[in-house]
Amino acid sequence: MRIAIYDLDNTLTRRATFTPFLAFAARRIAPWRLILLPIWVLMMLGYRAGLFDRTTLKTYGMRLMLGKASVEMLQRVGHEFASTRANNDFFMPAVLALLDEDRRNGAHVVIATAAFDFYALAFADLLLIETVIGSRWDGRVISGGNCYGETKLRRVQSWAKAEGLSLDSATIRFVSDSFADAPLLELADEPIFVSSSASKRARAKARGWRVISAD
């Protein structure tokens, strides 16, 4: 069996999605919260300075910009968000070509992403991908932690077990732009790294990963 797993942000899409989603959703749900965007920027700087981890950052961002919005409302806004982005050359052509190749080869295609599943599912629908493994928001916290790094690997393993699939016997392709995804890239039979950075491409090649340009 062939399994093809794709990251979302900066891999299938040309740009990150979380901050644009926060602004988009706040505008739809509670426009007054847009005045809080400078606080969100400061929070991101705090994360980069090591003051808190990604799970904490994203949790604070959701509470700051979207308050107590229901998951059902976030799903509706998520579909609207994905639709508006898809009409603006938002997907990465080189990665879409890999996706077409995987479909021709009969692969089971999966998106595994740190993005919240309530809008990652909407992007997956546009790309005709049925399986999404993403971060899960229950209205208060990120249930199960941010789907990133080692957590993403564990989530993929749990999904495969639940589906009765053996990752050991499958041929796995994993496509990502992030070194944080090294655990899953190292698991894959065909790791593919996406980047426009010459230094990152060199690092990825040194690890034996196939590299494609994000340009």
UniProtKB/TrEMBL annotation:
Gene3D superfamilies named among the record's database cross-references: HAD superfamily/HAD-like, SG protein - dephosphorylation function
Keyword Repressor listed: no
Keywords per UniProt: Hydrolase, Magnesium, Membrane, Metal-binding, Transmembrane, Transmembrane helix
Pfam families from the UniProt entry: HAD
Transmembrane segments: 29-47
GO MF annotation: an example: metal ion binding
SUPFAM superfamilies: HAD-like
PANTHER family listed in its UniProt record: PHOSPHATASE RV3661-RELATED, PHOSPHOSERINE PHOSPHATASE
Name of the protein in its database record: HAD-IB family hydrolase
Organism: Parapontixanthobacter aurantiacus
